[in-house]
Amino acid sequence: MMTPTSRAEAAGWPAVAFPGGAIIPDWGAITTSRAQNALRAIVEAFIGPKWDGLDETESRIHGIVLSGYAATGHAPETADVAAAAGLTRDEADGVLRRLAERDLLVLDAAGRISGAYPFTDSPTEHHVAAGGRAMLERDVAVRSACRHCRRPLVIRTRSHGRELDQVEPIGIVVWSGHRYAAGCAASSLCTLQAFFCEDVHLETWRANSPAAGQEGVRLSLAEALEIGVAIFAPMRMEWPSWIPTT
Ligand SMILES: [Zn+2]
Questions:
Q1: CATH for 148
Q2: For the range 207-215, what are the long-range contacts, defined as Cβ-Cβ under 8 Å and sequence gap of 24 or more?
Q3: Which end of the chain is more exposed for a tag (fewer CB within 10 A), N or C?
């Protein structure tokens, strides 16, 4: 069910209740109207339709996959996921397929996990998506590149991924596209969350890619981080403690 949080109810801010009790996103993490608009678009286009109505097993498996990614930086094996969840391999395969149909994760042709938003095993321009830092609950360095000029970008966080520390160059901005393209979340949503070394390069990119560049919100890095915290800090509560065996 789509369950508005009480503090957001008056404003009509959308949210989704997970079976374990987490309400996503946490609108209390958002401090600016631009971040509010970007997050509303993400929830309405993606989180609401795709994540609404997960059953307990699906939610638990999803958490196991995410915690595996966070612990190792790559996709867990299906056999390990099944073992962690107490399911047979066939049962786990079935749940993984249902999660893939919801775009919560990506399976390769052989049925192996190859991505789970915001993590992906395929090369992307940023190693950890804008929303992923808070998910990791630790301080990380994000190496990315300007979507326009390919200049390397470095972003380091502190306070367990909740605050920005080092940002190089200082003028980095984020484009949060409103459009949810057909396809898998782990690639398509990352594609719509592009980093730029400065505003001029964001504007140049928008001018030259009318389809991708028009509908969306320009965010500061701090605002992008707020969105990541709003989405992933509540989700973290859903994760089982799980020591990967690989
Ligand atoms: Zn640039």
A1: 3.30.450.410
A2: 212/177, 212/179, 213/175, 213/177, 215/177, 215/178, 215/179
A3: N
